[in-house]
Amino acid sequence: MERIIFEKPDINKLKKDFTLVDMHFHTDYSIDSFNNIKDSLEICKKLGIGLAITDHNEIKGAEKAIKNNKNMLIIPGMEITSIEGIHTIFYFYNIEEATLFYNKVIKKNKIKDFFVWINMRFDELITSAKDFNCVVCIPHPFATGWTGLSNNIKIDKKTLKKIDIIEIINSYNSRKSNLLAVEWANKTNKAISGGSDGHFLNALGTTLTCNESNDLDNFMKLIIKNKSKVVGIEDGLYKRITNTVKKEYKVIKNTDKNLKMSHLIHEIKSLRNIRMKDCFGNKRINFKSPGFFSH
Ligand SMILES: [Zn+2]
User: Fold this and answer.
1) Beta strands, E only, the chain
2) How many angstroms separate the alpha carbon of residue 51 from the centre of ligand 1?
3) What pLDDT was estimated at residue 184?
4) pTM of the prediction?
5) What fold is seen in the domain 4-275?
6) How far, in Å, from the CA of 269 to the mean position of ligand 1?
7) CA pair distance 96, 63, nearest whole angstrom
8) What's the rounded Cα separation, in Å, for the pair 230 and 208?
């Protein structure tokens, strides 16, 4: 089975053999997304795909979606920003455990009125997750902004062990970043996943994780066993730019002054990391491993 395919998923063909899930998606409970849960799930039903709800530092969207749609394959998750700016996705086998993790670990570490990141270091965060029945995934590790793990820390063996999955196709990232993630997953022999990182409805299903399970438990188990494939395609430059503008608009529209301020700091930190050449796809792929790999 070819495991990593960079192309627009042919959903009708794929669903004959596999269960398909977009493993990275935001609802309007995220600071920078407008996605209404009902509309999002309606589209998933039409497409015949499952969905992992991975809101920024929030569980309410996943809770609401699962409560009202018991018959759909919805994986509860959350995408948490550590104090260094690193994004980590935590997936759970049921919503109760996800809520417990949120209440016991995330909620109390949210900085009051300053919610763009939480007051925990990356290593503290993934260590505390190990007390819960959850799966730790590093999304877009080579994202050009502040949120990519590779921009922030060097990773040691002990920390690497606590990571279960590396997201190797993220539709909102460049081909170059995604290929570096593929290379990292291969080198470290980690399980793989992919998702749209959709903040808008038009992203749904642009990257899918596929395997032969038919329920949440087995879907996650097959991912961890590395028996999944990922099929997906990155957004074109136009879509990436317009979606970025729309994301910023949502944050600006938010009336909370502190929230706006923390987001602004976040964006400035990101801009410092962005090299413009990274925005233009795979023309200049440089496979020299960053120092990051050698640890
Ligand atoms: Zn995301």
Assistant:
1) 4-6, 19-25, 50-56, 74-81, 87-92, 110-111, 114-118, 134-138, 165-170, 191-195, 207-211, 229-232
2) 13
3) 92
4) 0.86
5) TIM Barrel (3.20.20)
6) 17
7) 9
8) 6
Give the N- to C-terminal CA distance of the chain in Å, as an integer: 30
* pLDDT of the residue at 223: 98
| SS3 at position 138 | strand
Cα dihedral across residues 214, 220, 223, 224: positive or negative: negative
Residue 208 tokens read as 């899918």
Residues of the chain with pLDDT under 50: 275-295
Ligand 1 center to residue 175 CA distance, Å?
17
Contact present, 81 and 118 (Cβ < 8 Å)? yes
The alpha carbon of 208 and the centre of ligand 1 are apart by a number of angstroms equal to 14
CB atoms within 10 A of CB 142: 24
- Burial status of residue 71 (CB atoms within 10 A of its CB: 0-12, 13-18, 19 or more): exposed
Compute the distance from residue 56 Cα to the ligand 1 centre, in Å. 7
DSSP 8-state symbol, 290: P
**Range list of H helices, 209-236:** 216-224
The residue ranges of every structural domain in the chain are 4-275
Question: What's the pLDDT score for residue 83?
Answer: 84
In sequence order, which residues have a C-beta less than 8 Å from that of residue 149 and are 6 or more positions away?
86, 87, 122, 138, 141, 155
Using CA atoms, how far residue 87 sits from 83, 171, 212, in Å, is 10, 16, 28
The alpha carbon of 153 and the centre of ligand 1 are apart by a number of angstroms equal to 19
- The partner residues of 55 in beta bridges, in order of sequence, read 78
- Residue 253, pLDDT score: 76
CA of 195 to the centre of ligand 1 (A): 9
Ligand 1 mean position, distance from CA 62 (Å): 14
Spatial distance between the Cα atoms of 93 and 258, rounded to a whole number of angstroms: 34
